[in-house]
Structure prediction request, 50 residues.
Amino acid sequence: MGKFAEADAVISNIFICRKCKARNKRNSKKCRKCGSIWMRPKRKDIRVKK
Prediction:
């Protein structure tokens, strides 16, 4: 994962809405912004630009 353990702990508690890309808490059932139930966990790996 990343360089800092504190940042990794915060990132692991974030879910991203697939519809509007809003950040949500880990235990939320629906998006706080649009109300969609389609959520994904935030990516934990570092991606390199090609």
Observations:
- The first strand starts at residue 14 and ends at 17.
